[in-house]
Design a protein that fits this description.
2 domains; seven-stranded antiparallel sheet
Length: 234
């Protein structure tokens, strides 16, 4: 919640309460006067707090459609998590605010283990790839690769978050983000996962809220179709 709204609401409430009593010629600073001003401040703060809660972004994390891509260096499957900011309308007014400066953190762990194997910054599929085009080729964008990507999610909109990839003919799958572009075939050996089932914890931190959900990542065989992401109970 934006605390500025709470402060502004309280100040406006106090100003309103004082104005009312002055208009009513209630000029004696009695206990009743102080009680009226206090009640105005408290009620305004409560209203501002409730409005802040109602208007706060509401992020929902769920499994998104996978994406299969065929490239010169191999055929891959990318699995994603979809991040939605639920919409809230009153007549023609949008009550819910955008989720701003969203940063994703993804942890991968073995079933039954509390400590993750590794943890990576999430890559928003809606953002450009960390490469810069120039005549005759391209070069890696080091700022994007080593930065911490952030995204905005407007009410009613959704964005996809990359989680992992698998290449045809390879047993292991790999966690995937912008730093994967530094490794051959986007396969960072530090983020390698042999065939099996793993838990994946996705945490989204926005400017004013946090959303967390755990998924299951299943890696079977040596074909890309063997990589799938499944939802757990919300």
């Amino acid at each position: 919640m934006r605390y500025a709204e709470l402060v502004i609401g309280a100040v406006l409430g106090a100003a309103l309460a004082i104005s009312v009593v002055l208009v009513a010629r209630w000029l004696d600073f009695t206990a009743d006067f102080a009680l009226g001003v206090t009640a105005g401040i408290v009620s305004s703060a409560v209203v501002a707090l409730l409005l802040g809660i109602i208007r706060a972004p509401h992020l929902v994390l769920e499994v998104a459609e996978h994406a299969d891509g065929n490239y010169n260096h191999g055929n891959f499957r990318f699995v994603h998590v979809r991040v939605r900011n639920l919409q809230l309308r009153l007549v023609g007014w949008r009550l819910r605010r955008p989720a701003t400066f969203c940063r994703a953190e993804i942890s991968f762990g073995d079933i039954g283990a509390n400590v993750p194997r590794f943890r990576i910054d999430g890559r928003w599929a809606s953002l450009p790839e960390p490469v810069q085009q120039y005549p005759g080729g391209m070069v890696l964008d080091q700022g994007a690769i080593f930065g911490r990507p952030r995204e905005f999610v407007n009410p009613g909109d959704e964005v996809a978050l990359d989680v992992a990839i698998k290449q045809d003919g390879v047993d292991n799958c790999f966690g995937f983000n912008n730093r994967s572009y530094l490794s051959p075939n986007w396969s960072n050996p530090l983020w390698s996962l042999p065939p099996g089932t793993y838990w994946v914890r996705v945490r989204i931190e926005a400017a004013e809220i946090e959303a967390i959900r755990v998924f299951y990542l299943v890696n079977n065989g040596n074909q890309r179709a063997g990589l799938n992401l499944h939802e757990t109970l919300p």
